[in-house]
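**Fold in tokens:**
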Amino acid sequence: MTGEKKNRIAVVDYDAGNIKSVVQAVNLVGENVEVAVTSDEEVIRAADHIILPGVGAFGDAMKRLERTGLTEVLREEISAGKPFLGICLGMQVLFDESEESPGVKGLSVLHGRIRRIPEGDGRKVPQIGWNRLSFPNPSRLFDEAFLAKDPGCADPYAYFVHSYYLEAEDPSVVAATCEYGVTIHAAVESGNLYACQFHPEKSDRFGLTILYHFLNHL
């Protein structure tokens, strides 16, 4: 419809990679979306939804966020109630600290620590590939009734690329887990804040369904 208000999506650019595939997925599943890849504070504040992607090292990511002046902007927008999705490294930096970068403080929007995946038992680190998710708590992002509408989501597997995993302090915020030598807190949810260690944009039908739900219903 001509003149219909666009759903403005800010994909935060802080030189942490993993942007192109996220933008492609958002354009594929978003309804009437206008996507901005940006580090501009005003564009982020004006957005209807914010996505924080990322791959790489925790310490480098925090330095780049601080250098671009975005740490407080992201905290404020989350606190204000704007729908926010962190992906992979973009989830990890929401927490307090990481064993990957001792002494570097994260955004501490949620509390917990990022730990190294233990090696052994023939397990390869990093974990690269598909892993089955379990859902320990009720979740808006992984809403059972919504996922049940799509037979492709009946067996929820997601695609991971990571050497470090989240150990959340509050188990009630854990929306999804998987097993890889330890129990990995694979997704979290708190109010308007959602975050996934896995890559929904690379997780086939299940991942695209999750993105669709976030963009169009949350």
Observations:
- The first strand starts at residue 7 and ends at 12.
- The two ends are 22 Å apart (CA to CA).
